[in-house]
Amino acid sequence: MPSRPESDHGPMWGPALPGEAGAMSYHDPARIPAGAPERRASPTLPSPILPSPTLPPPTTTSVPDPTRDLVARGLVMTYGRSGASAGPPALGGVDVTVRAGESVAVMGPSGSGKTTLLHVLAGILRPTGGQVLWRGRDVARMSDRDRTVLRRKDFGFVFQQGMLLPELPAIENVALPLMLGGVSRSEATARAATLFAPLGLSGLEKRRPGELSGGQAQRVAIARALVARPGVVFADEPTGALDQTTSAEVMQHLTQLAAHTGASLVVVTHDENVARWCHGVVRVRDGRLAGGSTTPLPSGVTR
Ligand SMILES: Nc1ncnc2c1ncn2[C@@H]1O[C@H](COP(=O)(O)OP(=O)(O)OP(=O)(O)O)[C@@H](O)[C@H]1O
């Protein structure tokens, strides 16, 4: 059994090592330190839609690795002008680590800062303070142009309504991120086509988004988010417009395809049934992690 060092680094995203003396169990809420992401039991998977992931299982080390993981420290986000007219911060000092290849659900009441956190992690919003470390770079300090390139190359996105381009057939919606990255139309379309069968979308390649059901459209959006093999997929209420059964199917496809390609996953959701599909849960209240503790920086990383 691999050894897990006694951790002074707070949240650990590696799977609990059952039976190991002193190992933190993510399945026992009483043993989770304040502010640490909860570790979730795996949902019972129906029969797999995709082949099993061929990549190594998620890391079991406890110290975040900013060269592989998405590591955010001390995130502060205040909308509007600074000074007296500024409202309370939407994020008031949040630390989150999303380990390579793992999935995390972000939960919390309406207005607690979930979407703001997702947008800051994904480089859509520049935070007022703090760091977002991704593959050795601080996303928060990149130029607008570099963040645009980063979002296109390294990140994928799924939104509540899919946000597919209504005038394009499904296959072209999926191929689009590749074409924007310089891949030829024929190769992009061929690569996009390989995702339709695993996602249960065979035969729907030429349909326009308006001719798809909500669940089918979200599966097309999942294909589009993952076709360029991003390092992280960000999903904001990806099942918010779906019924429970369709929602479970979409989450199964999303988590399986992410695992198959090795992508990490950040899912904002109000739904505990959606969060069950993720390795861990971060709870946000009033712009802070519920419990309020912060995670020390990994060694070698400075604020
Ligand atoms: N563009 C904006 N300008 C000003 N304030 C904003 C903006 N976007 C969000 N806020 C405020 O920031 C806080 C957090 O909003 P956010 O959308 O992140 O919450 P949320 O948890 O995602 O909410 P919901 O679950 O309702 O979508 C709220 O008080 C909100 O009013």
Automatic annotation (TrEMBL):
Top-level taxon of the source organism: Bacteria
SMART domains referenced in this protein's UniProt entry, alphabetically: AAA
Family matches, as InterPro entries: AAA+_ATPase, ABC_transporter-like_ATP-bd, ABC_transporter-like_CS, ABC_transpr_LolD-like, MacB-like_ATP-bd, P-loop_NTPase
Keyword Glycosyltransferase: no
Chain segments annotated as coiled-coil in the UniProt record: none
UniProt keyword terms in alphabetical order: ATP-binding, Nucleotide-binding, Transport
Ranges where the ABC transporter domain occurs: 70-301
Region (Disordered): 1-66
Record field: compositional bias (Pro residues): 45-59
CDD domains, A to Z: ABC_MJ0796_LolCDE_FtsE
PANTHER family referenced in this protein's UniProt entry, alphabetically: ABC TRANSPORTER RELATED, IMPORT ATP-BINDING PROTEIN
Protein's name in the database: ABC transporter domain-containing protein
